[in-house]
Design brief:
alpha+beta; Jelly Rolls; 4-stranded antiparallel β-sheet; globular; transcription; DNA-binding transcription factor activity
Length: about 230
């Protein structure tokens, strides 16, 4: 039996977001007061590379694919943005055009903090600016880590690191946070390489891969060891 996703308020979504969850309650309430809810159906283009930034999007439910298109039409997935995550934040704070495209992978509910209202709030609320700088520094550190993963780590280490960041249930099962081809592209791998790594981890007894999207972690310590950052 399926259950409808609970409808949350803008403030609840802001409170649970990775970007804004660390703000003080009064700052979260100030942002909630200027926010609006939006819903996107599967396949909907939420934003396009080069357009004016509409604001900061916070994902409440669903999944959004963030990607860039190169001069020869090639695509690279920058991020798969799920519940608790955000996108377009750097463009909104810097007030410059959107640097990437965003498409809903499935039906998605978001909270949008419109850029004009956000810029006014930042201009008048210096404490919010200070707290935002702290949140953004953590976000920058996340992307530096991602760059390290792509440049300095092999395919097995990249996939293991990705899986370590996906929450498991009580039995060790996890669900891949997006289509396999998008996850592979995000890690700068081919789909074939991504699948081959999963098979190797399955053969080594680290994982039990029983479907395309659902995996059971059999040896979490070994998975963490494979995905650990080199010191």
């Amino acid at each position: 039996m399926s259950h409808a996703t609970p409808i949350r308020t803008c403030e609840e979504v802001i409170r649970s977001s990775e970007l804004l969850g660390g703000l003080e309650d009064c700052q979260q309430a100030a942002l909630a007061a200027i926010s609006v809810k939006q819903q996107f159906e599967q396949g909907h283009r939420v934003m396009s590379q080069g357009q004016a930034c509409p604001g900061v999007y916070l994902v409440d439910s669903g999944l959004v694919r963030i990607f860039r298109i190169g001069p020869r039409g090639q695509q690279h997935v920058l991020h798969l943005c799920g519940p608790g995550q955000s996108f377009a934040e750097v463009a909104a704070f810097g007030n410059f055009p959107i640097p990437a495209n965003a498409t809903a992978v499935q039906r998605t509910h978001c909270v949008l903090i419109p850029i004009d209202a956000l810029q006014r709030e930042l201009a008048n609320n210096h404490e919010l600016c200070r707290q935002m700088l702290s949140s953004m520094s953590l976000w920058v550190r996340h992307f530096v880590q991602l760059l390290d993963d792509i440049v300095l780590r092999d395919a097995m280490e990249r996939v293991a690191r990705l899986l370590c960041d996906v929450p498991c249930d009580h039995s060790g099962r996890l669900k891949l946070p997006g289509p396999k081809k998008d996850l592979a592209n995000h890690l700068n791998l081919t789909s074939e390489t991504f699948s081959r790594v999963l098979r190797r981890l399955n053969e080594q007894g680290v994982l039990d891969v029983d479907s395309d999207r659902t995996i059971r972690v059999l040896d979490s310590e070994q998975l963490a060891k494979i995905g650990a950052l080199a010191r």
